[in-house]
Amino acid sequence: MKKRNISSACLKAAFVAITGLTAALAGQAAHAAFPERPVRLIVPFAPGGGTDMISRLLAEGMARELKQPVIVENKPGAGTTIGSDEVARARPDGYTLLMATFAHVVNPYLHPKLPYDTDKAFAAISMIGHSPSVLVVRPDSPIKSVKDLIETAKQKPGTLTYASQGVGTSAHLAGELLESLAKINMSHVPYRGAGPALNDLLGGHVDTMFGTAAAVGPSLEAGTLRALGVTTAERSPALPDTPTIAESGVPDYVLDSWYGLYAPAGTPPEVIATLNAAAHKAAATETFRKKVQGEGLVISTGTPKALEDYIKGEQARWKKVISSSNITLD
Length: 330
Fold this sequence. Notes:
Blueprint: H1 8-33, E1 39-43, H2 50-66, E2 70-74, H3 81-88, E3 96-100, H4 102-110, H5 118-121, E4 122-137, H6 146-155, E5 161-164, H7 170-182, E6 187-190, H8 194-202, E7 208-212, H9 213-222, E8 226-230, E9 256-264, H10 269-283, H11 286-293, E10 298-299, H12 304-324
Parallel strand pairs: 1-2, 1-3, 5-6, 5-7
Antiparallel strand pairs: 3-9, 4-7, 4-8, 4-9, 4-10
Helix pairs in contact: 2-9, 2-10, 4-12
C-alpha cells in the first residue's frame, strides 16, 4: 500500500478554504439572526407630539414582528439635527433607526453647516405615511378663519405669535411660507417638540400653531382647539369641513407632512429588507390604522427606493421655495 504525501501547500490551501467557508457561514448566520438584541428608534422631537405618537405605535408593531423590543428614544433639539446626527454616526447594523420628517428635507437648505451629509449619511427603509399640518387656535381666539389671521397680522405686524416644534420643522416652514405668500409678518416661537408647543398654545402663551394632524387631533376632538385650515393641496379626510389654506385666499400654498424610517448609510441590504417588512406589517395592523387614520395620517408604506424618490422630489421643490421666498432662520 502506497503512502500518499500531502504537501504543506495543500494543507494551507485547505485550511484557508475551510476558514473562508466558516466565516461566510457565520456572516450569513449573523444576518439571518437579525435582530439579536433591542432596536433603538430615535425620534428627534420631545415626547408628546405627533411624531412621537406615531413612532411609538410603529415601534410596538415592529417589536412583535422582529421579536425584539423596539425602544423609542427622544433626542430633540436643533431642528431635529441632534437626533439625526446620532443616527448618522451610529454603527450601520440596523440597531439604530431614525423617524425622519419634513425637516429631513429642508435642513440642508436652512443649515449650511450640518454635521452630516443628508444625501450620504442615511439609508432609506420605508415611508410610513403622510398627513396635513393644521393651523389651529384656541376656541376663545377672536381669529375665526385664515382670512382673519392674515388681516390681524397685517394690522399688527410682528405681534401675532405662532409656535412650532423647532426651527426648520414643518410647523416653522408652514408659518414662513404663509408669511411669504400672504405678505405678512408674524413672530415664530420654537420649542423642543410639538408637545411643549401645544401645551403653551393651550395655555395661552402663543396665539396659533401649525400642528400635525396627529399632534392636534385629540385637542380638536376635545374642543380645546379650533382648526382654521389644512396645509395640503386637498382637504383632509379626517377634517373634511376644514378648508385648505390655499382655498382660504393663499393660492399655491401647499405643505405635506410625512414620516419616513431610516437607518445609517451602509446598513446591509438584507437588514434593510427585514426592517422594511417589519415596518409594513406594523403599519398594516388594525390597531395602528385605527389610531393614526382618525388623526389624519394616510398610511403609505413602500420600498426604500420609493422613499428615496419622494425625498428627491421634495428636496427640489423646497430648495426652490426657500430660495425664491427668501426664507431665513431666526
